[in-house]
Every structure is written in C-alpha cells, then in structure tokens.
Write a structure and sequence with these properties.
This protein is α+β, with helices and mostly antiparallel strands. It is built from 5 helices and 8 strands, in the order ααβββαββααβββ. The longest helix has 24 residues. It is globular.
Length: 184
C-alpha cells in the first residue's frame, strides 16, 4: 500500500477550496501518477504506462498488459446522464455481472465515468457495498479529487488483487483526505 499521507502532509494543511483546482492539476495529480507508476512498475517492470483522459477524468493504463492502473479526476457533482447510454458499451466487456465479479467502474457512473478503459473486474460484494461510500462522498462534494489505484499480482492477470480508493475534499482553509483499501 502506498503511504499517501506522508507525501500529501506538506500540501493538504494549506490547501483551500480556492487553491485546490490549480493544486490538483499542477501538484497532486503529477505526484499521484508518480507514486502509482513507481509502485506498479516494481511488480511489472516491463510495463508501458500511458496517461489518457475521457470526459474530464484521467486514466493510467498499462498498454503491455492491457489493464487499468489508476483513474482520477475532480468531481463535478452528480452526473445526470442515464445509465442506458452506457449499457450497450458494457455488454461486450468481459466478466458480466456474476455472483463473484462485476464490471466495476474505476470512476463511478454517478461521477461521470463512462465504460471501456474505466471498467475493471471487481468483486461484487465490494462494488455493490463498501466501495460506494467514497463514491457517494465524491458526488456530494463537487471540487473534490477522487481516485482509484488498482493493484495487480505478478503476471498479466486482468483481475486486480486490491484497490486503493481516495478522496481529497478541500474546505475553506484545509483539505481532508479519506482513503479506503479493499482486497479484490
């Protein structure tokens, strides 16, 4: 598990709502990408990491293993787009909703996350349960930075072994940080 607090402690106590957008883009985003890339490449030294964006969210993808490593972005509040829009795109994704795994969104649909690169095999009991707490908090706090970092075992398995889920919520004078980790 990455020690986010150690790296963020020098930034968050001084991060106000007013300064947050620029800080998320200029400092915290690059800091997180660096942490994820270093951690991930320790287990997958021949990785080929690519950063891309979709609908205002960013994704770190390993082209070599064809899997999502991390997703992050700033909450714009509740996404009003109907799930019917994405339903046809999800049908072709492996691991149809089953008793064990779901096609989980790295960035929740309620936050504006779409499909394709944003879908990850996730334990149903996590996806439909405790994972939703930080997603809901991100939806209810526009301007907060939400992220997921997907951890994999050795090899090229498409199913993550764990996920780290975080939320940075800027306030008037300080930014709070919530982190949850789930085995997958």
């Amino acid at each position: 598990m990455i020690d986010y607090r150690q790296r963020l402690n020098g930034i968050l106590p001084r991060l106000s709502r007013e300064k947050a957008p620029a800080c998320f883009e200029d400092k915290i985003g690059p800091l997180l990408v660096g942490l994820w890339a270093r951690d991930y490449s320790r287990g997958v030294p021949d990785c080929d990491l690519l950063e891309t964006t979709d609908s205002g969210f960013s994704y770190l993808f390993d082209v070599e293993t064809e899997r999502l490593v991390a997703a992050w972005g700033v909450s714009r509040g509740k996404n009003q787009e109907s799930r019917a829009v994405i339903a046809t795109r999800m049908k072709g994704h492996p691991l149809a909703n089953s008793d064990v795994y779901h096609r989980g969104h790295a960035i929740a649909h309620t936050l504006g996350g779409h499909t394709d690169i944003n879908l990850v095999p996730q334990l149903g009991k996590i996806n439909s349960g405790p994972f939703r707490a930080l997603e809901k908090m991100a939806v209810s706090h526009p301007g907060s930075l939400y992220f997921t970092y997907w951890r994999y075992g050795r090899g090229k398995n498409q199913v993550p072994v764990a996920v780290e889920q975080g939320l940075l919520c800027p306030g008037d004078t300080v930014c709070s940080f919530e982190l949850a980790t789930f085995e997958n």
